[in-house]
Every structure is written in C-alpha cells, then in structure tokens.
Amino acid sequence: MPPAANPVGPGATPRRGSVAPPRRCDAVVVGGGVIGLTSAWYAARLGLDVVVVDPEPGRGASWAAAGMLAPVTEVLSGEEALLALTLASARAWPAFASELSAATGRPLGYERSGTLLVAWDDGDRAWADELYRFQRELELDVEWLTSRRARDMEPDLAPGIRGGVWAADDHQVHNRLLVTTLLDAVASEGVVVRRNRVETLERRGGSVAGAALDDGTVVEAPAVVIAAGCQSPAIGGLPAGAVPAVRPVKGQILRLGPSPGSPHLARTVRGIVEGSSVYLVPRADGSVVVGATMEEKGYDTTVTAGAVYELLRDAHRVVPGVTEMELCEASAGLRPGSPDNGPIVGPVAHVPGLVVATGHHRNGILLAPVTAQAVAAHLVGAEPPPELASFGPGRFAGVPG
If you count DSSP H runs as helices and E runs as strands, how many of each does the chain have, helices first? Predict the structure, then answer.
C-alpha cells in the first residue's frame, strides 16, 4: 500500500460537514514536488490563481534526489525522443535558475561543472567506449579521456581508472535548495499551498471542477493538474482511461559530509562499475551525494544495509577517499516510472480540464522547466513546447503502470 504521507487519498466520499464555503481558483495542482511547484509558479506568472495541494510540499522524490541535470551521460539507445526533450529542458535551465533566484533572492546551488563518466575496469571501459560512440553519433558534445587525463581533471579518482567521457553540458543543482526556493517563489506569486491530501476530484458534466480535500473542504477550479509523482494513480475520482500509467521505482541514496583528509570533488563523477552506475555529486560545502539504486519494490522506502554497502563499495572503487567522509544521511525516494521511461505530460483528451504531469522517472528535476512551460501553456490555451509532443498521456491509454 502507498505510505500515509502522500497528496492523495483512497477516493472515498468527501467529508464536507460544516466547513467553509468552497475556495475558487483557476487551477488546482495536486502534488508539491519540483514538477508541481514549478508548474504552479509558471502558471501564476501568467496571471492564473493557483492552489497547490500536498501534505508535505517540497519533500518526496524531489527532496531525496541528487539534482543531476545530465541528459548527455544518461542517454540510452532507443530513447532519442527523450534525449531531445531532456536537451531542450537543459537549455532552459540557466534562464530558469536565474529567474528563480532573482525572484526570491535565494541561491539554488546551480553548477555548470560538467560530468566526468569513468570506467573502473577493462570491461566497463568497453561499455563506456560504446556509449561514447553512440553519443558522438547523436552529435553530443562529449570528449573521450585517457585514464591520465581523467585523473588530471579529477585528482581524487582511483589510480586504476581505465578512461572515461567528459560531458561539459551535464550540470547539477542542489535539489533541496531548489524546492525550498520554489516554495518561496510560489508564495510570492500568490499561490496558496494547502497541506492536505486530495480525497477525490470534483467533476461536473464530464469535466473536472476542482478537488475535495481530506479536511472536508472543496477547492473549485476548471482545471486540475495531476503532478503527484508515483502517487498520481491513487487520486480518487479519476475516470477510466485517465489514471496515469506510473509506478514507484525505489532509489536509495547517501549523503556524505567532509572530514579531515577526505576528497573535495570539483565536478560530478559517474562511475561505471561492473556494468552498473554509481554517481558522486559534489556540493559547494564539500559534501557529496552518492546514488542511487533502482529497485522495483513498490512503495517500500526502507533503507537497507545492503544498498548502503553497495553504494559505498562502488563509490570507493571510483574515488577511494569517500570512505573517509562522514555518513550523514541514508534515505530512499520513489521515482515515478512510466512504461517507456518517458514523462507523461499533457491534457487528458476525454476529461476536459484535466492535465497530467508525472512519470519523469530519473529526470524530474532536469525536466521541470520544460514540463512547467507545457502545463502552463495547456492551462491558458497556448502552444506547449514541441519536444513534448511524443509524451502525452494518450500513448498509455489502458496501460497499467
């Protein structure tokens, strides 16, 4: 079963009782993670009156993430349409970060430091070389590095590293600074954030008409945006064919603090170790985020000793000094995965007023700007970014997550 702390309920009949009159607005955004908050901010800046509903805004998968903005080193064969989308959103990130910081006066920890992907042994070097050739076929800006050049770029790499790929256009943001800044930004635009769960959608004549909350109140609106991550399918009142085909994909992640003698990484390092990937994302304060597992475990968020061991073991093979750092946090988040690993963004054709923005899997923070542009465009009747044309909800009609 889904954990208790989520923005949706079981779809029971709303408890109206003796409560205040319904609150009216232009759009209800269900979900207060990075996708929901960014969408609300964009919509509010277009003049819409927006209400965000989430019992723990800014938490969930957005809080657990590492903040990698890595379309180049995350690319996989067969996902060229997704690559075009992630590249478009990566191009939007500098302006997005600048506007958000200017609007709030707060830093985001946005760093254009690039990503160094390295191979631990000869087998992993062959894998990295194949990836490099694929990246070059796609005309991505990457450079192959010998082991010596890789260590010149990042001196704390293990001496046995066999080489790697330098991707200057893969960046990062401090995800926790991002969500706290977004909460300030939406407040400054008049967005109301309700710390509630949605019991059920309100509908009128086949169209959405708002949302009933778990405290018995109703927020009336002609548009509802489903941005509740992997909890999106549990929203009550979703009609047949409108339930997003998303599922939880567990990711365990570590946060390490600096200590005497520990490395101070200058850039994000993705290590290919025995065919799998571990990444080390440095922060300005000297801390490092190490992640992340990919587990099909349903709604389980248990942190396991085995995952902590494997992450530290693989990180040590790439950057041995990390084992001298302080283990500050071990946590687990639930990514919203879709059947084809692409996001699900756009209106539901047979339910007027219903817009979906979920299924971002490993790319939620990266895809926040382009997703928010699309959501806001749909809400005001404008044209969304063309790169999202292949990622509408209609492609999964009748397909379970």
Answer: 8, 20
- The answer to whether residues 186 and 329 belong to one domain is no
Partners of 213 in the beta sheet? 198
pTM: 0.92
Looking at 337, 364, 379, the residue that finishes a domain is 337
User: Is residue 5's pLDDT more than 50?
Assistant: no
Looking at the structure of the chain, the number of domains it has is 2
| Exposure of 108 in the CB half-sphere (CA atoms within 13 A) | 30
What are the residues whose beta carbons fall under 8 Å from the beta carbon of 258, sequence distance 6 or more? 264, 285, 286, 287, 325, 326
Quickly count: other Cβ atoms within 10 Å of residue 267's Cβ: 19
- Burial class (CB within 10 angstroms; exposed 0-12, middle 13-18, buried 19+) of 204: exposed
Instruction: Count Cβ neighbours within 10 Å for each residue of 106-139 and write b for 16 or more, e otherwise.
Output: eebbbbebbbbbbbbeeebbeebbebbeebeeee
Mean pLDDT (whole number) for 296-317: 96
Edge-first strand listing for the sheet containing 354-358: 192-194, 50-53, 27-30, 224-226, 354-358, 344-347
pLDDT at position 11: 35
Residue 187: other Cβ atoms inside 10 A: 14
CA dist 287 and 130 (Å) reads 32
Of 270, 318, 335, 294, the C-alpha closest to 131 is: 270
Q: Is the pLDDT of residue 18 over 60?
A: no
Q: Are strands 163-167 and 143-145 parallel, antiparallel or unpaired?
A: antiparallel
Residues 240 and 360 in one domain: yes
Confidence band (pLDDT; 50, 70, 90) for 399?
Answer: low
pLDDT attached to residue 8 = 41
Q: Do 36 and 79 share a domain, yes or no?
A: yes
pLDDT of residue 21: 58
Quote the domain boundaries for residue 366. 1-111+171-246+339-401
